[in-house]
UniProtKB/TrEMBL annotation:
Residues 1-25, 69-92, 310-336 are annotated as: Disordered. Residues 73-84 have a biased composition (Low complexity). It comes from the Bacteria. InterPro entries: DUF5691. This is Uncharacterized protein.
Length: 583
């Protein structure tokens, strides 16, 4: 048995204490440096205990220092808590509407929501509920703000209405949770709008400039949009000040923000953007300039188009003059004054020169498209539509569209006119290009005038009532197969003729004996878009019909379920409206 003398023991204890003391005072950086370089190259700032080698002493010191560092952390100074949430003076929701909102938000978050196939889909009704609540000017209950922000985070289609309903308290709450940062996109714009009030007039410019220079990108986009809406010139000045230092992708988004409040005063800035380093920025600048009918770019593109498209009598004339230049006047029936038949002749550009490219013409066509037709389409699309009436002897759009086009160029020319009509929001041109809804739709393989049309885009430029009537007549003539996109551009709730046409077409499909699944998209639209007052009229369709000979097995029952869900959803929408408008 080994014995230890009191002197040796005391020496060992002293050495251990000394080593521990040294380790506790050694710098962490010195310990790390010694470990990285090695104890042979750097002497550790610790003394080994008797019988202990230097590397072990270094590791012991590091372990001790780690514990000391963790235990010795001082609490960080407390940051000030969030300020008091701003007041929202809008009226509170009625009790029934408050319960309805809680139900809609809870249904949105319920995993694997099941239930009867005839039960309404509450999640699809949330956008309408929010729009109705905002129409009445209500504010959301504070307790439902987190759930509302969660819903808006998950669905971008809810964000605008949800943030309007949430008001200033939603923005206050969003600043406290990184998951809700999307809500701050509109914060800068709202702040900018509030700065225009008299009470903030003295500090508004400085505060707006600070937000513009220091804000997040999304906040800056929102700020620019708000500034442009309030004062287009001031918004443009804000953008011009930092334009040279912005990234290309940011310049593109900022440039797109000028679209809604575009005016001739923006032309000098946009002309400079035509020389931008980024092709996408140049293309967007050219598109915006072409929307200004009196801009220099629109004039240049119009002159190029005039050299490519002309109105001639009995084919191209020897000198290439238009009918107007040769004295031919319109007779209203596609004939010149001397009785000759008029037609449009097309001579597309031979090259895409540097001037065309600077004005936004993309030289390389998509795969499968000819170069010359590609260049022609871009020129015609950027030409102000009023110029065609001027060049073609005062003819109205419907008369111009009805004129024959020589040498198979009709599809390319009319397609370019369609894009121009949508871009320039010309209802008269859109109406002429749409034609009558009774014209049968064609497939992609058929070479017919309707092949180039995009009715949904053209319809978007028409007044809502006319839009609904056109689609109703289209459905009455062709059924629902090609109507889904057209229904999507119609105002909600659908006008009575359109709603009646949709229901009649669904009834015909049911009588044909097919399953309703082929019409699930239209049925879903009907649930959200039909006037809720039509529920009683549709009640007769909820019964299971007698199974007809040749009908798909069980189809009648499935149709009954589909109509039960439609009627139930309409009645729920009517109840929602009543809850939000107790009067």
């Amino acid at each position: 048995m080994t014995s230890t003398t009191p002197v040796a023991a005391s020496t060992s204890v002293a050495a251990t204490a000394s080593s521990t003391s040294t380790a506790s005072t050694a710098s962490w950086d010195d310990l790390v440096a010694a470990a990285l370089l090695g104890t042979e190259r750097r002497t550790p700032p610790v003394a080994p205990r008797p019988g202990q080698d230097v590397p072990s002493a270094l590791l012991d010191a590091a372990a001790l220092s780690t514990v000391r560092r963790r235990a010795g952390l001082r609490p960080a100074p407390a940051r000030p808590g969030p300020g008091r949430a701003p007041e929202d003076p809008r009226p509170a929701l009625p009790a029934a509407a408050r319960s309805r909102l809680a139900l809609l938000l809870a249904d949105r978050s319920a995993p694997g929501r099941g239930g009867s196939r005839s039960a309404p889909d509450l999640a699809e009704l949330l956008p309408q509920w929010l729009a109705l609540a905002n129409h009445h000017g209500y504010r959301v209950p504070d307790a439902l703000l987190p759930a509302l922000l969660d819903a808006a985070r998950a669905r971008t289609d809810l964000r605008a209405e949800a943030l309007t309903l949430g008001g200033p308290r939603a923005l206050w709450l969003a600043r406290l949770n990184p998951g809700w940062k999307f809500a701050l996109r509109g914060a800068a714009g709202r702040a900018s709008a509030s700065l225009s009030e008299p009470s903030g007039a003295a500090t508004a410019p400085d505060e707006e400039q600070r937000l513009w220079e220091e804000g997040l990108f999304a906040e800056r986009v929102s700020l620019l949009s708000a500034a442009r809406h309030r004062d287009p010139a001031a918004g443009l000045a804000l953008l011009s000040g930092t334009w040279p230092t912005e990234r290309a992708e940011d310049r593109l988004m900022f440039l797109d923000s000028l679209r809604d409040d575009l005016s001739p005063s923006d032309e000098p800035f946009l002309e400079q953007a035509l020389s931008d380093r980024s092709r996408n920025v140049r293309a967007t600048a050219a598109e915006l300039l072409s929307a200004l009918p009196d801009s220099a770019l629109a004039t240049r593109m119009a002159e190029r188009s005039r050299g490519c498209v002309s109105l001639t009598a009995d084919g191209p004339t020897a000198d290439g003059l238009t009918a107007e230049a040769t004295g031919d006047r319109p007779t209203g029936d596609g004939l010149a004054a001397d009785g000759r038949t008029l037609r449009i002749t097309v001579r597309p550009p031979d090259e895409c020169d540097s001037g065309m490219q600077r004005d936004g013409v993309v030289p390389k066509p998509p795969s499968g498209r000819g170069e010359r037709s590609w260049w022609l389409g871009q020129l015609v699309e950027a030409t102000p539509l009023d110029r065609w009436t001027e060049w073609f002897g005062g003819r109205r759009p419907a008369e111009i569209v009805a004129l024959p086009v020589a040498d198979g160029w009709q599809a390319d020319l009319h397609a370019a006119w369609c894009r121009a009509a949508v871009r320039q929001r010309s209802a008269e041109w859109c109406r002429a290009l749409l034609g009558t809804p009774a014209v049968a739709p064609v497939t992609a393989g058929e070479a017919a005038p309707a092949a180039w049309r995009d009715p949904a885009k053209l319809l978007s430029a028409l007044p809502s009532r006319e839009r609904a009537e056109w689609v109703a007549e289209f459905i009455a003539s062709h059924g629902l197969s090609d109507a889904f996109r057209l229904l999507g551009v119609c105002a909600v709730p659908w006008a009575e003729p359109l709603g009646r046409a949709v229901v009649d077409a669904l009834d015909i499909a049911r009588d044909a004996g097919s399953y309703p699944w082929s019409f699930s998209g239209v049925m879903g639209l009907a649930e959200r878009c039909l006037d809720p007052t039509q529920a009683d009229r549709l009640e007769v369709l909820t019964a299971i019909p007698d199974e007809r000979e040749g009908a798909a097995p069980g189809a009648g029952g499935y149709w009954a379920e589909a109509f039960q869900r439609l009627v139930g959803t309409l009645r729920l929408r009517e109840a929602m409206r009543a809850e939000l408008d107790p009067s």
